[in-house]
UniProtKB/TrEMBL annotation:
Stored InterPro entries: 4-hydroxybenzoyl-CoA_TE, HotDog_dom_sf, YbgC/YbaW
SUPFAM superfamilies attached to this UniProt entry: Thioesterase/thiol ester dehydrase-isomerase
Protein name: Acyl-CoA thioesterase
Organism encoding this protein: Bacillus australimaris
Xref: Gene3D superfamilies: Hotdog Thioesterase (3.10.129.10)
This protein's record includes keyword Hydrolase: yes
Coiled-coil regions, chain positions: none
Taxonomy, superkingdom: Bacteria
Xref: CDD domains: 4HBT (cd00586)
UniProt keyword Membrane present: no
UniProt-recorded Gene Ontology molecular function terms: hydrolase activity
Length: 140
């Protein structure tokens, strides 16, 4: 299983009045991690969109464990949790600087035609991505 790692410095604007990261900002960091993973695997989400395909989130799960604070550096770990040629589930763990888990989560995605929003079979439309995703996903 391939795991992407991306550092993110917690900015003041991402925190609440208590200096704790506002919960919705973790979702943005998950997207940053997902985009980094796709790039590290040799692909581009921007190119996918240019090819007329979108990959909307169809499910999201997050478990908050420990707060990240202003001035800390978060480490976003991202991997392919599940993949079946149609749906991809990305897994995430965002860690505090000392390695403690701040959050864990998953996002589920399917690919759809940009114009009709009808699902497409990713494995058929993008065979190179399919092969890499098969090789990179979590082994059960």
């Amino acid at each position: 299983m391939y795991i992407s790692k991306k550092e993110i410095e917690v900015r003041y604007a991402e925190t609440d009045q208590m200096g704790i990261v506002y919960h919705a900002n973790y979702l943005i960091w998950m997207e940053v991690g997902r985009t980094a993973l796709i790039k590290e695997l040799g692909f581009s989400y921007a190119q996918l969109e240019a090819d007329g395909v979108l990959a909307p989130v169809i499910d999201l799960q997050v478990q908050y464990k420990k707060p990240l604070l202003y001035g800390e550096t978060a480490m976003v770990h991202t991997w392919i949790e599940e993949y079946n040629g149609l749906k991809t589930v990305y897994g995430y763990e965002i860690q505090k600087p000392d390695g403690q888990t701040a959050i864990t989560g998953t996002t589920s995605h399917i690919c759809v035609d940009k114009d009709t929003f009808r699902p497409i079979q990713f494995r058929k439309a993008f065979p190179a991505w399919h092969q890499v995703y098969e090789q990179s996903k979590k082994q059960v």
